Amino acid sequence: MTLAPQRRDGRSALDLRPTRFCWDPMGFALSSVTVHTGNTAVICSLCLDEGVPKWRQGSGKGWLSADYRLLPASTPSRQPRELMKLSGRTQEIQRLIARSLRACLDLERLGERTLLIDCDVLQADAGTRTASITGAWAALALGLRRLERQGVLSSSPLIGQVAAVSVGLVGGQALLDLDYSEDSRAEVDLNVVMNQDQQLLEIQGTAEGAPFSRSQLNQLLDLAERGIAQLQGSQTQALAEAPN
Fold first, then answer.
1. What would the DSSP string read from start to end of 217-236?
2. Which residues contact 163 (CB under 8 A, 6 or more apart)?
3. DSSP class per residue in 179-206
4. Judging by DSSP bridges, how do beta strands 19-23 and 200-207 pair with one another?
């Protein structure tokens, strides 16, 4: 497996797309952020509900759920709105986002409250699920900080940091953070979620053509780890600049 010297947008195989966070585009949310990764943009917002689902009542523990949608004009061909019936893809992605975020929470500290994350894709150029996780964690961290300062929470239930990135094999070359032109022709495509200790929370991967080897998988995970460390640095910097 080789590393491509340069890609269509001028990046090397080891480079992330430019990443930036724009805070509080939604004024009524507890916190919100638009995360841009190259031409992909996702707005992530956090709301708080006093109470938990019925099956959780009496446990003393909180809950976190997530919704994910592609907005109609987020892709070259208009996406119909998903209302009463969600596609399998949408259900899979919102469960992935929720699982990833719950892994960084002490739900006992939250008490019997529910955190509601909404991830709406403004523009899709591949990597929408990984951008959603990265942006949702930033919105979650800021929102919990605000709840603690308001006295709603005595201590923040946030116990870790989470980010995600895609990696893949394109033309036999290992690439970090695929855009659509790469993702659409990848022989292998992996979405990787990690915490601040580079421990794996989830791997979603498939061979679109020929099988791939364990050594190739290890190289792709090394590449993902490199990218996620950079994304977590960007999250930390964005939070340092976020409004109180």
1. HHHHHHHHHHHHHHHHHHHH
2. 133, 134, 137, 193, 194, 228, 231, 232, 235
3. -HHHHTT-SEEEEEEEETTS-EEEEEEE
4. unpaired
Is 67 in a helix, a strand, or coil?
strand
Q: How far apart are CA 30 and CA 184, in angstroms?
A: 36
Residues in the chain: 244
Name residue, tokens 């699982």: 99
Residue 143 near residue 92 (C-beta atoms within 8 A): no
CA distance 41 to 229: 20
pTM summary value: 0.95
CB 43 within 8 A of CB 32: yes
pLDDT digits (tens, 9 = 90+) for 40-76: 999 999 999 999 999 999 999 999 999 999 999 999 9
Strand (E) or helix (H) holding 16: none
**Tokens linked to 173:** 């070359």
Residue type, 64: L
* 46 beta partners: 31, 117
